[in-house]
Design goal:
It is a single chain. The protein has a single domain, classed as Spore Coat Polysaccharide Biosynthesis Protein SpsA, Chain A. It has helices at about 15-20, 35-45, 55-65, 65-70, 105-110, 135-145, 195-200, 215-225, and strands at about 1-5, 25-30, 30, 50-55, 75, 80-85, 95-100, 120-125, 150-155, 160-165, 170-175, 185-190. The chain is α/β, with parallel strands linked by helices. The chain is about 30% helix and about 25% strand. The radius of gyration is 21 Å and the shape is extended.
């Protein structure tokens, strides 16, 4: 099954890193985030990726274009001829699609529709959407419930602890970081072609954000989980 990776955003919350590289190329343990994500999908046999490019997309193109050379043992002679002694290739097939710098999520999906077959299910996640979810269980859940889309999300801890005071200013309690009920982090989305088609109908233009579409129906669906 194909995997769509949204890798075109500005990554403003990692500004120290994303001034020089797109957020999916920020390294963890010497490996870009996007490659960690791809390795997880390949663990479950999903090796065909569609990457939606935008901000500094050329950095992503160059990384995968040169991947084999940069991870293999080579001999380069005085004439510039290259001989590969030990090849370290990944089994992936990657389609890199220019989807615009300012395009929002819905517009990016619209631009990759020609790479999806009618009726085809596919995974979709963000270029920083790291997770350790069991993809087989997720997809089986999706098929069993016969929904247009299935998503996974986590509730991150609040960023700070808090203090509770008595009226006279004396500290009453230390409150540890709690789970934030107002900040759901989306990790992975499965969309059927039918759902993507509906979203594209609602997404008039390239600036559309699919997460705003059908919000009432999505809210009801989440409450049933």
């Amino acid at each position: 099954m194909k995997v769509v990776l949204l890798a075109g955003g500005l990554g403003s919350r990692l500004a120290e890193e994303t001034k020089i590289k797109p957020k999916p190329m920020v390294e963890i343990g010497g490996i870009p985030i996007i490659e960690h994500i791809m390795n997880w999908y390949m663990k479950y046999g999903h090796t065909e990726f569609i990457i939606c490019l935008g901000y500094k997309g050329h950095e992503i193109i160059n990384y995968f274009k040169d991947y084999q050379y940069n991870h293999s043992t080579l001999i380069i002679d005085s004439k510039g001829r290259i001989e590969t002694l030990e090849r370290n290739a990944q089994p992936w097939k990657i389609t890199l699609v220019q989807t615009g710098i300012n395009t929002q999520t819905g517009g990016r999906i619209k631009k990759i529709k020609k790479f999806l077959k009618p009726g085809e299910d596919f995974f979709m996640t963000y270029g920083d959407g790291l997770s350790d979810i069991d993809l087989n269980n997720l997809y089986n859940f999706h098929k069993k419930n016969k929904k247009l889309a299935t998503l996974t999300a986590v509730q991150p801890l609040a960023r700070f602890g808090a203090l509770e005071f008595y009226s006279n200013g004396i500290i009453k309690d230390f409150i540890e970081k709690k789970t934030s009920m107002h900040d759901l982090k989306l990790n992975i989305v499965i969309k059927t072609r039918q759902y993507a088609k509906r979203q594209r109908t609602w997404a008039r233009g390239q600036m559309s954000d699919w997460q705003k579409f059908d919000a009432e129906a999505l809210s009801k669906f989440i409450k049933k989980l």
